[in-house]
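Service request form, structural biology core

Requester: graduate student, group of Dr. S.
Request type: structure prediction, single chain
Budget code: on file
Notes: please return the result as structure tokens.

Sequence provided:
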Amino acid sequence: MAFVPVISSLLDTDLYKFTMWQPILHRHPQTQSHYRFVCRNQPAYPLAELLEDVNAQLDHLCRLRFEREDLAFLGGLRFIRSDFVDFLRIFQLQRDFIHAEASGGELRITAMGPQVHVMPFEIFVLAIVNELYFRRFDAASALAEGRRRLQQKVALLQEFAAQPPLAHPFEFFDFGVRRRYSHDWQREVVRTLRDAAPQFFKGTSNVLLARDLGTTPIGTMGHEYLQTFQGLGIRLRDFQRAALEEWVQEYRGDLGIALTDTVGMDAFLADFDLYFAKLFEGLRHDSGDPVAWGEKALAHYKALRIDAHSKRLVFSDALDLPKAITLYRHFGDRVNVGFGIGTNLTNDMSLATLNIVMKLVESNGQPVAKLSDSPGKTLAADATFLAYLRQVFQMPA
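Core staff response, request fulfilled:
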């Protein structure tokens, strides 16, 4: 069977990989890191069966380079600096830094090395595993069902458009690179939504598709950025403040949506004082009850005497359009809102999806962890460190 690459461009990834990459390159280029692939649910067949194909895809991935037009597009983004573009001009993923093996039916993938060389692997690995996995199912029936469901989404948006708007507009974006059915299907979804609902659909996290389809690339920071600071020699209690401060210094007003659940919303708000609340445009929800989270955010802004109408709440946890519309109706008269929808846009094909992640587990040889507001999303490779993190931030076990 002929080799068909899953990734053909190094732009075929989330914008936030670049926006996190740049400050790490500028401020912590020596940081060593360890990323680990995890499948959280039961696949239809053992992922270990994909090992040979995964390795072939990784071989191909590590031969790719940024093309002239890729660099031109990135350099045209206001927040991307010219020295970072120059770094990308000579950048190439190193095959020695990533390893895939099979163990007891499980697929194990680890990336270890300088963080500026291994952090880009995450989204590529997830897209590769997903697309290889779904290639084994009947494509014709999956695509037929996917298109039927996509048209249902378009019809829902058309019906919603006839309703009176709230104080702030309803806006959503595609966040579906990592768990997509395929690259081609994601392209079709983004093109369809761009054309059918331009008043609501405001962009995609996929940088390649944003460039090719003329939409806005969307994204700021992910958990790995904040987790990295747990291993930088900073007092653990201060890692969030340090991460946010460096972000402010790097972007000076751009990319102002902060992620809140690396150690839970309550601990985040304890660090998110008036200084940060004024400097950041808003907050992103990624775990826990979204209504409770949003109410906490609004109460925090109120306590700081900040007009919530000047801020933005972005929801991105396991959303579909009906959930997004429900949240919009709850919050849309009080604060700007946005909705990042992933799997339900790019892999809604009637096939059971994979719940896969590739997360940072060590920074400079020290364990790091995420204490999510959703218990199933807590991620740590070291139970002792996780217990210590809970103690430092006074979170229940």
